[in-house]
Amino acid sequence: MTGPAQPRWALVHGFGTSRGVWRRVLEGLPAGALTPELPGFGDNAAAGRPGQTTADMAESLARTLRAAGEGPYRLAGHSMGGKVVLLLAARHPDLVAELLLVAPSPPSPEPMSDEDRAGLRAAHGDRAALEEQYRTIAYSPLLPEDFEALVRDGLRADAGAWAAWTDVGSLEDVRGDLGGLRAPVTVLYSEDDTSITPDTIRGQVLGALPQARAVATRGSGHFIPLERPQDVLALLAPQEVQS
């Protein structure tokens, strides 16, 4: 006899990407998942606007999830999406049963040099710059189709939303909002990630979430859902996914 069905997973992409960043995970997820896109990115690029905040994205996502009418959700967020789902869970605890943060941007300002921030800002719409960026933050070469999809997503992202994350969202400190967080949290990160480094995870993510379960992997850069989908699947559906 089986127990009650688990809440459905919703998988949220990170900066400059789209639902496509989860493609390798979805291939191995028997029950499937909802894959909403944040304003300014993917098929939702037209909804982006200059100056949009982490809260703006979290509220947009909350409306999307409520409209789907299947909550509460188990929410996974990659990179920027990790910060967004964390804030959503704190502000709308009724919507969230569980959180999986994958290589998440920290709830405090993301450490980045002025030079790197300027380079990220300037990469919008520049194929060569995007290709160099994605090669740098992946641990080893991605599959060609996955790499090209990332570049295409970067090229179609809204310019205002791109600059807003670089200059606003990534610098926000939302730790003061986390008092409403009730859902259990797991943080999956790579010891080989040069974008959101292990030191950032341990100091700024786990430091702000002392109750969280930490799971470290190796052999992946920042794109864990594409580089090590099996590690994500082991946390999304440990009883269903075959090794």
Automatic annotation (TrEMBL):
<keyword id="KW-0378">Hydrolase</keyword>
<dbReference type="GO" id="GO:0016787">
    <property type="term" value="F:hydrolase activity"/>
</dbReference>
<protein>
    <submittedName>
        <fullName>Alpha/beta hydrolase fold protein</fullName>
    </submittedName>
</protein>
<keyword id="KW-0614">Plasmid</keyword>
<dbReference type="InterPro" id="IPR029058">
    <property type="entry name" value="AB_hydrolase_fold"/>
</dbReference>
<dbReference type="InterPro" id="IPR050266">
    <property type="entry name" value="AB_hydrolase_sf"/>
</dbReference>
<dbReference type="InterPro" id="IPR000073">
    <property type="entry name" value="AB_hydrolase_1"/>
</dbReference>
<dbReference type="GO" id="GO:0016020">
    <property type="term" value="C:membrane"/>
</dbReference>
<feature type="domain" description="AB hydrolase-1">
    <location>
        <begin position="11"/>
        <end position="234"/>
    </location>
</feature>
<dbReference type="Pfam" id="PF12697">
    <property type="entry name" value="Abhydrolase_6"/>
</dbReference>
